[in-house]
Automatic annotation (TrEMBL):
InterPro entries: Mog1/PsbP_a/b/a-sand (IPR016123), PsbP_C (IPR002683). The lineage of its organism: Eukaryota, Viridiplantae, Streptophyta, Embryophyta, Tracheophyta. It is found in: Plastid, Chloroplast thylakoid membrane. Residues 1-36 are annotated as: Disordered. Residues 7-20 have a biased composition (Low complexity). It comes from Datura stramonium. This is PsbP C-terminal domain-containing protein. Residues 101-239 form the PsbP C-terminal domain. Transmembrane segments: none annotated.
Length: 242
């Protein structure tokens, strides 16, 4: 005899086979939270970046060479004394008080002592030279008995008569220029520039106290190219005083 199923039993059986377990909601990724950097951290970063930038600047900047450093000078007081009074004998030994001319001497240059014989024969009164290259020098000669300057060309030729090196420099020069100038007191100077293959010369000539003064600045070609500013400075610094 067939059994009759109770409706509740059928419903219970059907429900148990079709009901699905609840699906959990999808997991969401937690949001990362960024906290602002502390003042200490910011200070460290700033210091590091500043130091890095400074180091980069130092490494990429060319250091100045010794040649770029400014030249300093001392003033030389020349007396243009006769050979008999050389070194103060028979006259005032205080050069500054009895100076007849002055010019600048670069620091580091050495003085070459002029003998009485040399002073008496060619009129050389003073001389300084660069110890690194002795041919780079300045010196002054004087001659008594000149009241005024002769024409510029005549003066230069007369100076060359007593200076063999000057003769050679003029003979082999690429160019010789001359000009006149007056100082603040109206005193006349002749300025000469001789540009040669082997060397360069700047000469300044003037008359005062019945004497002719000639100031020379000479340098070999390599030294002229290197020290032109210094050499022009000492050339322009010459003047008579008193």
């Amino acid at each position: 005899m067939a059994s009759i199923l109770h409706p509740s039993s059928f419903h219970s059986s059907s429900s148990s086979t079709t009901t699905k377990p609840p699906v959990p909601p999808p997991l969401s990724r937690p949001q990362a939270t960024l906290s602002p950097p502390s003042k200490t951290l910011l200070a460290k970063l700033t210091t590091t970046l500043t130091a890095t930038a400074l180091a980069t600047t130092i490494l990429t900047t060319t250091s100045p060479s010794l040649a770029d450093s400014p030249t300093t000078y001392s003033i030389y007081y020349g007396t243009a004394a006769s050979a008999a009074n050389y070194g103060g004998y028979g006259g005032n030994s205080d050069k500054k008080a009895s100076a007849e001319y002055i010019y600048d001497v670069p620091d580091g240059w050495k003085e070459r002592l002029v003998s009485k014989v040399e002073k008496g024969t060619n009129g050389t009164d003073s001389e300084f030279y660069n110890p690194k290259k002795k041919a780079e020098k300045e010196y002054l000669t004087f001659l008594a008995g000149f009241r005024q300057l002769a024409p510029k060309d005549v003066i230069l030729n007369n100076l060359a008569l007593s200076d063999v090196n000057l003769q050679d420099l003029i003979a082999n020069a690429d160019g010789v220029t001359s000009e006149e100038r007056k100082d603040e007191n109206g005193q006349l100077y002749y300025d000469y520039e001789i540009d040669g293959v082997s060397g360069h010369s700047l000469i300044s000539v003037t008359c005062a106290k019945n004497k002719l003064y000639a100031h020379f600045v000479n340098a070999p070609a390599p030294e002229w190219k290197r020290d032109e500013d210094t050499l022009r400075h000492i050339h322009q610094s010459f003047k008579t005083v008193g």
